[in-house]
Amino acid sequence: MKKNRLVPLFLILFILSFLFLTFFSEAKTSSNKQKLNLLLITIDTLRPDRLSCYSSEYLPTPHIDRIAQKGILFKRAFAHVPLTLPSHVSIMLGTIPPYHGVHDNSHFIVRDEFLTLAEHLKSYGYATGAFVGAFPLDSRFGLTQGFDVYDDHYGSKSSQEFSFVERRAEVVVEKAVDWLGKQNRPWFLWIHCFDPHQRYDPPEPFKSEYKDNLYNGEVAYVDFALGQLFDFLKEENLENNTLIIFTADHGESLGEHGESTHGYFAYNSTLWVPLIISFPGATAKEIEDEVCHVDIYPTVCDMLGIKKPPFLQGFSLSPLIKGKKIPKREIYFESLYPYYSRGWAPLKGFIREDEKFIDSPIPEYYNLAQDFRESLNLASSKNLKELKAKLEKIIKEKSYADKIENEPKIDRETQEKLRSLGYVASIQISRKKVFTPKDDLKTLLPYQSMLMKAMGAYHHGRMDEGIKLLKKIIADRKDFDLAYTYLATIYKDQKKFRLAVETLKEGLQNNPNNYKIITTSGIFLTEVGQYDEAINVLQRGLKIIDYDPEIWNYLGIAYWRKKDYDKALAAYQRALALDNDYPIVFNNLGSLYLSIFLKTKEPQKYQKAIESFKRALELDPNYASAYNGLGAAYSQGGNIERAIFCWEKAVELKPDFTFPLYNLGLANLAKGNKQKALDYFNRYKTANYRFLSPREKRELDNLIRKCKESP
User: Fold this and answer.
1) Do the domains spanning 25-325 and 495-708 agree at the CATH topology level?
2) Which of 37, 154, 244, 574 lies 20 to 30 A from 372 at CA?
3) Which residues of 442-502 form beta strands (DSSP E)?
């Protein structure tokens, strides 16, 4: 009888256990035969309080709210770095920066030996696709590992400009949906939308509707674009077998603590991020526990029912979703961009429950339960020695055992292994061992603020104001690299090339090993025709970093202009070996092959020129320079109609583009279309006459007279 009485109890326990264990049964698979898909959405520079599922104070975001209404919303999720690249590396590797070694958007890259989330899912049979919105996630930085498709085709623009190359969210979503429609097996799709990043410039009608707060307009626009993605998932019945994870790489200060954007401080305005996890069968729920980016990778593994790699440093959030707890831990964060670029004091810290410690020459401590916006610094009442020791222990225990320092003087083989790229920061500068309050980022904030004001003035056409601010920065802080490069950029835009070069020479004198100033100087010298000096400066930069494709590209241009075609070809080939989807290099390679053809008359060189220009246009269909080059190639091959078509396309894309305007004038004059030729020559004159030499002016005036002559 005792045994019979135990059977019902066992059955009850078994049923309860079964129900508990299968809480995620639908999240793991929509059927026993079908794996769950994974959709990871990362929005750049997104504050949680701008989503109506987090706060009703600012704007409605109905489409993002849709996933929150049938998912788990984490109210206290944090990034580890307030920058795009390192945050995404932490998400994709499940490790913090001291482990993966990527600390800013510049001279770091994902090491090949690390197992990315994409590689891990690929080993389980997943199709993998990534569609990113801007240059900080360019394929050259290494996050391509494990992706069948890594679509970073956002156009061509020099990194010397103030803003990143980007494409709108609708374009990213359209490309991603097109890829989804071709999949016939479980997939992992990562979509990255860059739009909320400054400059804030949403399309209409959002620009007009949110004219008083364009950042909010960008968020509203991204919500609209994602609505198209969510509609597709619903129409294709993919919602029923897809795990959706929605987050941001970091937030945006919007003036809090005196910081206008992000990447400088590490307050919650930039570290706090949204995190929403939605899966089939989920019940809407809000979770207050502190979580972070490195928790995403292990959570995915648990919810897809796959093995977790041993190196992961985060916790699976499945227990929290089930109503359980995860171990208490410190969430590490850092902001090292000012340290790497200017030698200013590093900023590191940790969050543990309601406690936040920021280690800097002027340390900070906040009680987040009472002061989430960090307005009252309690550091003076805390045991700072103990807090610093705790932080040092975190860094020591969480660092990669085989870590290779990304510092100068490393051998070329190690450099190749790291493939670090110096995009917007310097790598070889003199850094202090001990920092004082005068080196603290809070002390130096006025100069960062002046830089942002100068950029704003530039973007709104107030050049003189921008110049004045940048000169003030340089006078006070001769180590501020971006002040020199931005001032030179403004001078270049004003066609004041001598002042641009002089500004950069001053920067080099004050910062002789600053990679950003060195490479910008080499690029500017190339653009103003000082090729020998450009080559010397660029080679100086290559002694610091010899794996930046942009520098190899400009070195190729300088050699090409000097008619040293062999060295130019070698430089371009090196650039493409580092980034084989670089449309600018293919365009320049086309010009090189065309020059070689004109010298040697070798047909294969002509064909290579055509192929190179076409490849540039495949990568960037709106690349006006490539159309101009292709037109020149067709012209040299005797196909004037194709040449005219290409030049007209170039002018359509870039109406003030002087080279195709001049070419169209010549081509139409040769065909006897004098009125058309006159129109193009006049447009060319309007755009470029004041920059021509006396001889060039006479030649242009003669051509215009010919157009006006009677037949």
Assistant:
1) no
2) 244
3) none
